[in-house]
Design goal:
Number of helices: 19
Number of strands: 25
Radius of gyration: 23 Å
Largest sheet: 12 strands, mixed
CATH topology of the largest domain: Rossmann fold
Shape: globular
Structural class: alpha/beta
Number of domains: 3
CATH architecture of the largest domain: 3-Layer(aba) Sandwich
Helix content: 25-40%
């Protein structure tokens, strides 16, 4: 690893805007945004994917490798990525800093505590929760309805035992007994606010807008009424500054915020993008999971609320993902999916075509990147290439950035350059003036292939309440499984004609959107039978192993 001061100099960050956090990571001062103008002609490339399989398709590897490849071509490029959550890291996914010859450094620190941003988010979130219960315990002058408190607690860990809990037991000294829950920190509204706000004043204003409860008359109560926003903002001051690290080839990368794409809006921070657009000609940013999750939320939430735009989309796929969606040997065994099966690839490409159609809704050109594996055969690759081009992709290229670093991404980088020269008019999927129910139908029909949307009685009551408190004009964030275009993780390929169920609706008023929970999606994941945590260890000389 190179000293972070050297990486900052390479990125064009003046020394006065750098706050080193040790030798290999640093915070970037927000004043840089006012001090430097946005580079003329700077372009943003959104990296998304087909519906991911349990094996992963390599979206982060591709994002890192693409940025490095653009630099290898002599372009100024920088990537903006989300910070990994400890939940999936110790659960199913493991480390989230790329791999092979396209990864971030220092990987162990980024994957674990990093610069403390996630801890700051959790602390600010839980401070508000404590102040709510403290208010209930003492005067309750705001007349909060203890059965209508919407603000749960949070922890950055998969822990299903905390999904439904009772607090305040043990008598009056311990507060008001009531039911509540924990959410994983990546699903916290405070995390969403961190990712979407524009500065310190905007941060405090958004925190004050958080809808924490309803009063006994059914009116909404905000965090500002509890006088909590100032202290929460103070806890988040340093976390608001984007983090600078480096790739395995010394390319600068900004890692900031970590909202999940299945339960939150799934994109790195607006502030990181604004910094990057002042430093680079190409900003490669990753949206979580498939195009119907992170990319839809990039265009309908992040871009709409910030005014940011994208000039191209990279859609990552793999041959084995096409086999998986094509029904080849219904197994998660990578050895079984490594055997040639051209008919399964052909069938599975329906999923690729659905995602290309999704990207087309947003009015930007798409490049398909086939994250190539040694077991992929020429016949299988040709099927993906032909179907991708027929489905509207500008180019379909093979990417070998995992095994070869930037050298393996040159074809992809050239294709992205070409895509960014094509005039486009990025657009959102729906008008904000539509009712919340109609926004949900637009997303479900256009992105998921559903015939219609079914709202539970609870969801209908919540929608009515949000209309009463003036929040029906916000964009929509659908929380759904990432393992299918639908709400059902068992529906592979390109499902269609089904009823998309909305079970609950929540207001993220401070972040500026409304969340609808589809099917059985939960905001607190659980650990698998054999969690990845069992593979992580600390050696006698202090080296962390098992994260990558």
């Amino acid at each position: 690893m190179r000293p972070i001061t050297e990486i900052a100099e390479k990125a064009g960050i003046p020394a006065e805007f750098l706050h080193p956090q040790g030798r290999h990571k640093a915070k970037v001062d927000l004043n840089l945004i006012q001090a430097l103008p946005e580079r003329p002609g700077a372009r943003t490339v959104v990296v998304t994917a087909v519906t991911p399989t349990p094996l992963g398709e390599g979206k982060t590897v591709t994002s890192i490798g693409l940025a490095m490849a653009l630099c290898r071509l002599g372009r100024r490029a920088l990537c903006t990525l989300r910070q990994p959550s400890l939940g999936p890291l110790f659960g199913v996914k493991g480390g989230a800093t790329g791999g092979g010859r396209s990864h971030l450094m220092p990987a162990e620190e980024i994957n674990l505590h990093f610069t403390g941003d996630i801890h700051a988010v959790a602390t600010a979130h839980n401070l508000l929760a404590a102040m709510v219960d403290n208010h209930l315990k003492h005067t309750n002058s705001l007349r909060l309805n203890s059965t209508e408190v919407y603000w749960n607690r949070t922890v950055d860990m998969n822990d299903r035992a905390l999904r439904d809990i009772v607090i305040g037991l043990g008598g009056d000294a311990n507060g008001v007994a009531r039911e509540t829950a924990f959410e994983i920190t990546a699903a916290s509204e405070v995390m969403a606010i961190l990712a979407l706000c524009e500065g310190y004043a905007d941060l405090k204003e958004r925190l004050g807008r958080i809808l924490v409860a309803a009063d006994l008359d059914g009116r909404g109560v905000r965090a500002s009424a509890l006088r909590a926003a100032g202290a929460m903002a103070a806890l988040l001051r340093d976390a608001l500054r984007p983090n600078l690290v480096q790739t395995s080839e010394g390319t600068p990368c900004l890692v900031h915020a970590g909202p999940f794409a299945n339960v939150a809006h799934g994109n790195s921070s607006v502030l990181a993008d604004r910094v990057a657009l002042r430093l680079a000609d190409y900003v490669v940013t990753e949206s979580g999971f498939g195009s119907e999750c992170g990319a839809e939320k990039y265009f309908d939430i992040k871009a709409r609320l910030s005014g940011l735009s994208a000039q191209a989309v990279v859609l990552v796929t793999t041959v084995r993902a096409m086999k998986f969606h094509g029904g080849a040997r219904r197994t998660r065994d990578p050895k079984a999916l490594a055997r040639e099966d051209v008919p399964a690839v052909e069938r599975g490409c329906e999923n690729l075509l659905a995602h290309l159609a999704n990207v087309a809704h947003f009015g930007v050109p798409a490049v398909v990147a086939i994250n190539r594996f040694p077991t992929d055969t020429p016949s299988e690759l040709e099927v993906v290439r032909a179907r991708g081009l027929a489905g509207g992709a500008l180019r379909v290229v093979e990417s070998e950035v995992f095994g070869r670093g930037s050298e393996g991404g040159l074809d992809l980088a050239r294709a992205v350059e070409t895509a960014c020269t094509i005039p486009s008019e990025p657009r959102a999927l729906y008008d904000l003036n539509l009712p919340l129910e109609e926004k949900a139908r637009r997303i479900a029909r256009s992105m998921y292939g559903a015939a219609d949307v079914h709202f539970s009685p609870k969801a209908k009551r919540r929608i009515e309440f949000l209309g009463d408190v003036g929040l029906s004009g916000l964009p929509l964030c659908v929380a759904k499984t990432p393992l299918s275009l639908s709400h059902d993780p068992e529906l592979r390929g390109r499902p269609g004609g089904y009823l998309f169920p909305i079970a609950d609706v929540r207001a993220y008023a401070g972040a500026g959107f409304v969340t609808m929970l589809a099917g059985e999606i939960m905001t607190m994941p659980g650990l698998p039978k054999v969690p990845m945590a069992e593979a992580v260890d600390l050696t006698a000389d202090g080296e962390i192993v098992g994260l990558m």
